[in-house]
Amino acid sequence: MRFCLRYTRSNISSCFTIFNYCAHNNRLHLPLTRSLSQFCQQIFFRPALSQPAYLDSSHYYSVFNALPSHYVIDVRSDTLSLPTSEMRQAMFAATLGDDIYREDPNVLKLEQKAAELFEKDAGLFVPSGTMSNLLAIMAHCPQRGAEAIVGDLSHTFLYEQGSAAQIAGVQLATIQNKTDGTFCLEEMQRKIRPYDDSLQPVTSLVMVENTHNMCGGKALPLQWLDELAAICKTKENTNGKNIALHMDGARVFNAAEHLNESVARITREFDSVSYSVSKALLAPVGSMLVGSETFIAEARRLRLALGGSMHQCGILAAAAIDNLRSPNFSVDLHNVHSNILLIHMANPQITASNFAKRLSLVTERELNDNIIVDEKEKGKQGIQLKVSSRNWPFVRIVLYNQIADKEVDYIIKKIEYVIREYDGICESL
Ligand SMILES: *Cc1c(COP(=O)(O)O)cnc(C)c1O
């Protein structure tokens, strides 16, 4: 599997895992998920939210009495995440074209990379997750009188203005979400309509949300996803009708992190997936929709009807591309169990010793790019990272007691930077 960086601290002695695909960027968000839940276990006694939290109109509040002397910590949502300086640089330097003519190179690249990452045929860059879900509903439910089954705490049901009904003309049938984000599969099966009954709507789509926002960021169990798919893909269960499966995976990378699985595996049985590039992935705007060639072609057509033509949106796509994995390095996630991490050279032109040597050097350019330790009083201090390399096709990193969390951050900062440097060099060859 290919590699960029992402890590999570599995315990306070800072054993850690570096994750595949996406990015350096996720580290800003993902480590928090685990330590935050540990913290909550210590101080809260109430069980997880089991009823919808209907927020009052003041829920978009800001900090009212903010003074310059106060330190504001804003954890309302990961939509507040901002692009890194590397992402801003990529946006600044992006070559642009008109996406309507399919001539924006960054959009084409992002769509292709997203499709590869999810092992689907094609991808489509869209302005938002809300539009992405609506497009999926419209493309999967072209028939009048169609019905889509969704969880009653899903974003699609609660927070998309009923656009399925309002715009797509599709009725949503809800099933009560359990606290783990799933719903009862027997009930789902009972909700699938008999196709030959002309009194009833036509069940055309089942949607799930992963991770599940209003169930507290739960990653749906793989086994449940597989069982759900087995029901929907067996004609005897669906009264002979094709039922499409869509995953609202706005935070599917967080699910992948929790399950220690690839996003391709998690979404394997799904006809389409939507994921946000502006939450954990830090891009300023946008979502990706992936699926089959014909599905994406239809979604692309419909996007225009929803006012989603984006012309030079490559300036946004450039930030999102930065999140995708490196073609030159890989980590086999299933083999990271404890404090030892092997980073494999996926490109035979890069040797482990060359990579190790580069990690141990500090360049003028990286100092200018702020690859330095944080303690300001010490001035600009570069990071020299010593990793182990012999005649192996990988470098080895081993954490131990004296390597503090802060140093793990520096390790990641340095490795990210150097990997990106190699990616840039390899691409221009
Ligand atoms: C954020 C979110 C969306 C909507 O994404 P926008 O880009 O804000 O429209 C959809 N589904 C889920 C689960 C989300 O968390």
Task: Draw up the topology in text.
Blueprint: E1 2-9, E2 16-20, H1 30-43, H2 85-93, H3 105-118, E3 122-126, H4 129-140, E4 146-151, H5 155-158, H6 163-168, E5 171-175, H7 185-191, E6 202-209, H8 222-232, E7 244-248, H9 252-259, H10 263-266, E8 272-276, E9 287-291, H11 293-305, H12 314-321, E10 326-330, E11 340-345, H13 352-360, H14 364-368, E12 394-398, H15 405-428
Parallel strand pairs: 4-5, 4-6, 6-7, 7-8
Antiparallel strand pairs: 1-2, 1-10, 3-9, 8-9, 10-11, 11-12
The structure holds pyridoxal-5'-phosphate.
Structural class: alpha/beta
- Domain count: the total is 2
How many helices?
Answer: 15
Which strands sit side by side, in order, in the main sheet? 3-9-8-7-6-4-5
* Total strand segments: 12
Order of helices and strands: EEHHHEHEHHEHEHEHHEEHHEEHHEH
The name of the CATH architecture of the largest domain is 3-Layer(aba) Sandwich
- Which assembly state applies to the chains in this document? single chain
Mean of the pLDDT scores?
85
Rounded to an integer in angstroms, the radius of gyration calculated over CA atoms is 23 Å
CATH topology of the largest domain: Aspartate Aminotransferase, domain 2
Which ions, cofactors or small ligands are bound in this entry? pyridoxal-5'-phosphate
Give the CATH class of the largest domain.
Alpha Beta
Helix % is 25-40%
CATH homology superfamily of the largest domain: Type I PLP-dependent aspartate aminotransferase-like (Major domain)
Family: Belongs to the threonine aldolase family.
GO molecular function, one term: L-allo-threonine aldolase activity
InterPro entries: ArAA_b-elim_lyase/Thr_aldolase, Low_specificity_L-TA-like, PyrdxlP-dep_Trfase, PyrdxlP-dep_Trfase_major
Modified residues (N6-(pyridoxal phosphate)lysine): 279
